[in-house]
Predict the 3D structure of the following.
Amino acid sequence: MDLQLLCSNEPGRESISRPWSAGDWTFATDGRILVRVPRINTEDKYKPLKLEAFKFGHDAVPEEAWVDGVVVDEVDMVDCKRCNGKGGWYNCTECDGEGKVESTCDACGHSHSSSCGNCGGEGIVNTDEGGKFHECHKCHGQKRVADPQSFVEMVGMKFATHLLFNLYNAVGAYKVAVSDDVEGAGLVKFEGGTGYVMSLRR
Protein backbone atom coordinates (compact mmCIF):
# COMPACT_ATOMS: atom_id res chain seq x y z
CA MET A 1 0.00 0.00 0.00
CA ASP A 2 1.36 3.40 -1.00
CA LEU A 3 -0.72 6.21 0.51
CA GLN A 4 1.50 8.86 -1.07
CA LEU A 5 -0.10 7.98 -4.43
CA LEU A 6 -3.38 9.31 -3.03
CA CYS A 7 -1.95 12.67 -1.93
CA SER A 8 -2.11 15.84 -3.99
CA ASN A 9 0.82 17.07 -6.06
CA GLU A 10 -1.01 20.19 -7.27
CA PRO A 11 0.30 23.70 -6.53
CA GLY A 12 -1.69 25.39 -3.80
CA ARG A 13 -2.64 22.06 -2.21
CA GLU A 14 0.57 21.49 -0.28
CA SER A 15 -1.46 20.92 2.90
CA ILE A 16 -2.65 17.58 1.50
CA SER A 17 0.61 16.60 -0.16
CA ARG A 18 1.41 13.84 2.35
CA PRO A 19 -0.41 11.40 4.67
CA TRP A 20 -1.13 12.47 8.25
CA SER A 21 -2.29 10.80 11.45
CA ALA A 22 -5.02 11.63 13.97
CA GLY A 23 -5.81 9.35 16.88
CA ASP A 24 -5.77 5.71 15.82
CA TRP A 25 -5.82 6.47 12.10
CA THR A 26 -3.62 7.62 9.24
CA PHE A 27 -5.27 9.51 6.38
CA ALA A 28 -4.40 10.47 2.81
CA THR A 29 -6.30 12.59 0.29
CA ASP A 30 -5.87 14.38 -3.01
CA GLY A 31 -9.13 16.26 -2.55
CA ARG A 32 -11.09 13.69 -4.57
CA ILE A 33 -10.19 10.46 -2.79
CA LEU A 34 -9.91 10.15 0.99
CA VAL A 35 -8.68 6.97 2.67
CA ARG A 36 -8.17 5.92 6.28
CA VAL A 37 -5.99 3.08 7.53
CA PRO A 38 -4.90 2.01 11.03
CA ARG A 39 -2.19 4.38 12.23
CA ILE A 40 1.15 3.89 10.49
CA ASN A 41 3.03 6.96 11.74
CA THR A 42 3.09 9.17 14.80
CA GLU A 43 2.67 12.69 13.40
CA ASP A 44 -0.26 14.40 15.16
CA LYS A 45 0.51 18.10 14.70
CA TYR A 46 -0.18 18.07 10.96
CA LYS A 47 -3.98 18.03 10.42
CA PRO A 48 -4.87 19.65 7.09
CA LEU A 49 -8.48 18.49 6.87
CA LYS A 50 -11.52 18.57 9.16
CA LEU A 51 -12.92 15.07 9.17
CA GLU A 52 -16.22 15.66 10.98
CA ALA A 53 -18.22 15.37 7.73
CA PHE A 54 -16.89 11.89 7.12
CA LYS A 55 -18.57 9.30 9.35
CA PHE A 56 -16.65 6.29 8.01
CA GLY A 57 -19.75 4.17 8.65
CA HIS A 58 -18.57 1.48 6.28
CA ASP A 59 -19.28 -1.35 8.74
CA ALA A 60 -23.00 -0.46 8.74
CA VAL A 61 -23.28 -1.10 4.99
CA PRO A 62 -24.66 -4.62 4.27
CA GLU A 63 -22.18 -6.88 2.50
CA GLU A 64 -24.55 -7.35 -0.45
CA ALA A 65 -24.43 -3.57 -1.12
CA TRP A 66 -20.71 -3.69 -1.93
CA VAL A 67 -19.53 -4.38 -5.48
CA ASP A 68 -16.04 -5.23 -6.67
CA GLY A 69 -14.25 -2.12 -7.88
CA VAL A 70 -13.28 -1.96 -11.54
CA VAL A 71 -9.58 -2.58 -12.03
CA VAL A 72 -8.17 0.31 -14.05
CA ASP A 73 -4.63 -0.52 -15.12
CA GLU A 74 -4.23 2.24 -17.67
CA VAL A 75 -5.75 5.64 -18.32
CA ASP A 76 -6.67 7.32 -21.60
CA MET A 77 -4.50 10.39 -22.01
CA VAL A 78 -5.13 13.63 -23.94
CA ASP A 79 -3.05 16.74 -24.63
CA CYS A 80 -3.07 19.14 -21.69
CA LYS A 81 -5.36 22.07 -22.51
CA ARG A 82 -3.67 24.37 -20.00
CA CYS A 83 -0.35 24.38 -21.88
CA ASN A 84 -1.62 23.14 -25.27
CA GLY A 85 0.46 19.98 -24.93
CA LYS A 86 3.72 21.92 -24.60
CA GLY A 87 4.49 20.95 -20.99
CA GLY A 88 4.80 24.56 -19.90
CA TRP A 89 5.64 28.08 -20.99
CA TYR A 90 8.67 30.22 -21.68
CA ASN A 91 9.28 33.79 -20.67
CA CYS A 92 8.66 36.15 -23.54
CA THR A 93 12.03 37.49 -24.70
CA GLU A 94 10.48 40.71 -26.01
CA CYS A 95 9.38 41.88 -22.55
CA ASP A 96 11.53 39.60 -20.35
CA GLY A 97 8.39 37.99 -18.94
CA GLU A 98 6.98 41.31 -17.71
CA GLY A 99 4.06 41.50 -20.15
CA LYS A 100 4.76 45.19 -20.81
CA VAL A 101 7.23 47.04 -22.97
CA GLU A 102 8.51 50.60 -22.69
CA SER A 103 8.55 52.88 -25.70
CA THR A 104 9.39 56.54 -26.24
CA CYS A 105 6.92 58.81 -27.96
CA ASP A 106 8.50 60.50 -30.98
CA ALA A 107 6.22 63.53 -30.62
CA CYS A 108 6.64 64.31 -26.91
CA GLY A 109 9.75 62.35 -25.96
CA HIS A 110 8.07 60.78 -22.93
CA SER A 111 8.38 57.09 -22.07
CA HIS A 112 5.17 55.00 -22.16
CA SER A 113 4.35 51.48 -21.04
CA SER A 114 2.14 49.23 -23.17
CA SER A 115 1.20 45.56 -23.43
CA CYS A 116 3.76 43.45 -25.21
CA GLY A 117 2.60 42.60 -28.72
CA ASN A 118 4.62 39.39 -28.82
CA CYS A 119 2.92 37.69 -25.86
CA GLY A 120 -0.29 39.73 -25.64
CA GLY A 121 0.69 41.07 -22.23
CA GLU A 122 0.92 37.59 -20.68
CA GLY A 123 4.70 37.57 -20.28
CA ILE A 124 4.88 33.97 -21.45
CA VAL A 125 4.85 32.18 -24.78
CA ASN A 126 4.25 28.55 -25.77
CA THR A 127 7.31 28.28 -27.98
CA ASP A 128 10.80 27.12 -27.07
CA GLU A 129 12.17 30.29 -28.66
CA GLY A 130 11.42 32.07 -25.38
CA GLY A 131 13.52 32.52 -22.25
CA LYS A 132 13.10 30.80 -18.86
CA PHE A 133 10.86 27.69 -18.87
CA HIS A 134 7.91 27.43 -16.46
CA GLU A 135 6.51 23.91 -15.99
CA CYS A 136 2.76 23.54 -16.44
CA HIS A 137 1.05 22.96 -13.06
CA LYS A 138 -1.74 20.91 -14.64
CA CYS A 139 0.35 18.23 -16.39
CA HIS A 140 3.60 18.80 -14.43
CA GLY A 141 5.54 19.09 -17.67
CA GLN A 142 4.27 15.75 -19.01
CA LYS A 143 2.32 17.45 -21.85
CA ARG A 144 -0.59 15.01 -21.45
CA VAL A 145 -3.24 14.48 -18.75
CA ALA A 146 -5.86 11.85 -17.97
CA ASP A 147 -8.90 12.25 -20.21
CA PRO A 148 -11.48 14.10 -18.04
CA GLN A 149 -14.29 12.61 -20.15
CA SER A 150 -13.30 9.01 -19.34
CA PHE A 151 -15.34 7.39 -16.56
CA VAL A 152 -16.48 4.06 -15.12
CA GLU A 153 -20.00 3.45 -13.80
CA MET A 154 -20.51 1.48 -10.58
CA VAL A 155 -23.33 1.38 -7.98
CA GLY A 156 -25.31 3.84 -10.12
CA MET A 157 -22.55 6.47 -9.99
CA LYS A 158 -19.90 7.61 -12.46
CA PHE A 159 -16.27 7.80 -11.35
CA ALA A 160 -13.38 9.40 -13.23
CA THR A 161 -11.14 6.66 -14.62
CA HIS A 162 -7.95 8.33 -13.44
CA LEU A 163 -9.20 8.38 -9.82
CA LEU A 164 -9.86 4.64 -9.89
CA PHE A 165 -6.44 4.13 -11.48
CA ASN A 166 -4.81 6.02 -8.60
CA LEU A 167 -6.90 4.16 -6.02
CA TYR A 168 -6.07 0.72 -7.43
CA ASN A 169 -2.37 1.51 -7.70
CA ALA A 170 -2.30 2.75 -4.10
CA VAL A 171 -4.34 0.08 -2.30
CA GLY A 172 -4.94 -2.83 -4.70
CA ALA A 173 -8.33 -4.54 -4.99
CA TYR A 174 -11.23 -2.55 -3.55
CA LYS A 175 -15.03 -2.58 -3.23
CA VAL A 176 -17.50 0.28 -3.73
CA ALA A 177 -20.88 1.13 -2.20
CA VAL A 178 -23.17 4.17 -2.11
CA SER A 179 -22.38 6.73 0.61
CA ASP A 180 -25.18 8.09 2.79
CA ASP A 181 -23.07 10.64 4.65
CA VAL A 182 -21.18 12.41 1.84
CA GLU A 183 -23.25 13.52 -1.14
CA GLY A 184 -21.65 12.78 -4.51
CA ALA A 185 -19.17 10.26 -3.12
CA GLY A 186 -18.90 6.50 -3.11
CA LEU A 187 -17.68 4.46 -0.17
CA VAL A 188 -14.62 2.33 -0.77
CA LYS A 189 -13.08 -0.43 1.28
CA PHE A 190 -9.92 -2.43 0.72
CA GLU A 191 -7.65 -4.71 2.70
CA GLY A 192 -6.51 -2.66 5.65
CA GLY A 193 -8.64 0.45 5.17
CA THR A 194 -11.71 2.39 4.05
CA GLY A 195 -12.43 5.67 2.33
CA TYR A 196 -14.40 7.76 -0.12
CA VAL A 197 -14.06 8.57 -3.81
CA MET A 198 -15.87 11.49 -5.42
CA SER A 199 -18.22 10.74 -8.29
CA LEU A 200 -18.77 12.80 -11.41
CA ARG A 201 -21.83 15.02 -11.44
CA ARG A 202 -23.35 14.40 -14.85
Summary: The longest helix spans residues 161-171. The mean pLDDT is 80. The radius of gyration is 23 Å.
